Amino acid sequence: MLHIVACIKQVPDTKIIKMNPKTNTMDRASAPAILNPYDAHAVEEAVRLKKKYGGIVSVLTMGPPPAVKAIKKCIELGADEGYMISDRAFAGADTLATSYALTKALEKIAKHRPIDLIICGKMTIDGDTGQVGPGIARRLNIPPLTGVNKVVEVNKEKGYAIVHRKLEDGYEVVKSQLPCLFTVEKDINDISFAPLPNMIKAARYQPTIWTADDLEDVDRKQLGLKGSPTIVSKVWAPPKPEGGKILTGTKEEQVNELLSIILEKKELFS
């Protein structure tokens, strides 16, 4: 019986979020919080593997108390249990500190029930780094299979998984030992509609919540802002593109005018 853990994150809906023109920061209050779309596909794939091979799907997230809503959404999709690590000590974490904290939580989960497979979304839409999944795999010393867009087979008895990894010009077939970690593309599956029993279960469900003190062998210097070597000093919206210019006149006049415009912008081509 497989034990699959999907690592997820609650993020602001970037289709709606606005920038604060005074502070040049994201106004998170301007957009609703949602389950990261890539992570939704990770949970969907975990649930499909559970139905195919049998097993249990757990979800894990790090975030403030409202992130419980993201776990409930995963329960709607078919996950069996949820875990959240929430503590001010985790605040301000970059991808390095986040992967460290999640690894410590995964180690605690594995002591209760050994983990065969970890599935993460390719990236989060509020960061776009794609670093947390591979970071977890490195810390756990398990193979990371990134950009997975098809799971061919997961064989727990023989201890291997076969997947397709998306490439720019096609895909490659990769076989890996278990346990391992996948980061998945959006085109790996289509999200299923949540059945009513799952929705009722999710509404009542309360995940297991741990603080930093509940995790074992934690080096607090590697948590949160203290454990984050990278800092986002400024975020700003790009300037709106200028409107196009229509050239008029004879062909020679248009060519001359175009050359003049190009020469004025020659620094763009240097």
TrEMBL record:
Superkingdom per UniProt: Bacteria
SMART domains documented for this protein: ETF
Domain Electron transfer flavoprotein alpha/beta-subunit N-terminal as annotated: residue spans: 23-218
A GO molecular-function annotation: electron transfer activity
PANTHER family referenced in this protein's UniProt entry, alphabetically: ELECTRON TRANSFER FLAVOPROTEIN BETA-SUBUNIT, PROTEIN FIXA
Name by which UniProt lists this protein: Electron transfer flavoprotein small subunit
Source species: Anoxybacillus ayderensis
